[in-house]
Amino acid sequence: MRSVITTLTSEEFAGRGYVDNGMQKSAEFIANEFQKLGLEKINDSYFQEFTMPINIIKNAELKLNGKNLKYGEDFIVKPNSYSQNFHQKEIYYFDPMDYSASLRFESAFIDFIQRDMVAQKGKHIAFPPHEFEVDSLNQYYKHWASFYKPEENRNRAVFYFSKDKLIASLSQIQDSIAEFIVNKKYYSKNLSIDNYKIESEFINDFKSKNVIGKIEGKNKDSLIVITAHYDHLGKVGNVYFPGANDNASGTAFLLNLAKYYSKNKPKYTLIFIAFAAEEAGLVGSYYFVENPLIDLKKIKFLLNFDIMGAGEDGIQIVNSSIFTKEYEKLNQLNSKNKYVKQIKKRGEACNSDHCPFYEKGVPSFFTYTLGGAGHYHDPFDKGETLSLEKFQDIQDLFVKFIDKF
């Protein structure tokens, strides 16, 4: 498990994303592991190839008040941003209190919008760090920059200063906006925007591939499917996102189960799928269910593993309040053998690769671990920050669970 995580999070794999062949290298590594373990190919290949649109942020720089900020630590850019170099502009400071006060009356809100539309023209825009008591207002505030007309954004940037943790993400579209999300500590009413740069490239048909292998069971009429996504966020400039917990750990978990069952013939045929492009919107898993290489109706149960590097505080299972019989079975096994502290129940959520299958009527669990360092979608999600304390215990739990079907 350590070896797999160390390999997948190494700089050579460039964050398993869209630059330096990161995703391609990762897919080939997993296929090679499948081959070494003796997993069967489906249709003479371990790969299911597909293309997808993606906006790649290749590089981003920002200098405020004389300080060069670090990507991923001090700032990130919105993933739909387009390329832009520095333009010297006056700064328009959006006033969140004025905005909030205007919402009391329709006439006041219309007046605010009119003033805002005039005041921001031809200027950089700075959104101060601010939290409203009402969540919907926070959402409007965070997305206000998208209300400005595309032609107005051509030679200026938007700077949103945030109290929240910086969480990088991906986008399948490129917008007209160049938007920076910056740690709140760099905000000042006397802000000096000294330099910035975004280099992005939109690719309409980026080539990706799911990796699929099979271990034939004693019962060939039904299938147990085990999934994990292997991709992550990639690399921006010299900063790469290792993605140890998310989801090199889940990939290692999948490979460990494949290794176990390569030596211990399972009751039912097992299908192992390592998905590409989960971080871009479950792209690989949606492609698979629309172009299945197996009969989805034969799937007895699907187990998806995403974020498996901790476990000190137990595990949580999406869909466990839906599939209560399977949840109780898992709980009984845990109560008897004390594998983890707790198995927390959760309802349905379309937040990982189980979702496209669940939407097609496939019974499924999505399991993730609780505890650990808490690094997520940042450059600090490294292999050395993972305890893997309960990794083997959780594997033993799910081996027992799979064998009980």
What are its keywords?
single chain; 405 residues; Aminopeptidase; Glucose Oxidase, domain 1; 2 domains; ten-stranded mixed β-sheet; five-stranded mixed β-sheet; 10 helices
> Which stretches are poorly predicted, pLDDT < 50 over at least 5 residues?
none
Q: Residue-averaged pLDDT, rounded? A: 97
Q: State the end-to-end distance.
A: 26 Å
Order of helices and strands: HHEEEEEHHEHEEEEEEHEHEEHEHEH
Number of extended strands: 17
Overall form: elongated
What would the CATH topology of the largest domain be? Answer: Aminopeptidase
Summing up helix and strand content along with how strands pair, one would put the structural category as alpha/beta
Rg (C-alpha, Å): 23 Å
Oligomer: single chain
CATH superfamily of the largest domain: Zn peptidases
Largest sheet: 10 strands, mixed
* Top CATH class of the largest domain: Alpha Beta
CATH architecture descriptor of the largest domain: 3-Layer(aba) Sandwich
Instruction: Give the DSSP E fraction (strand runs of 2 or more residues).
Output: 25-35%
| Fraction of residues in H or I helices | 25-40%
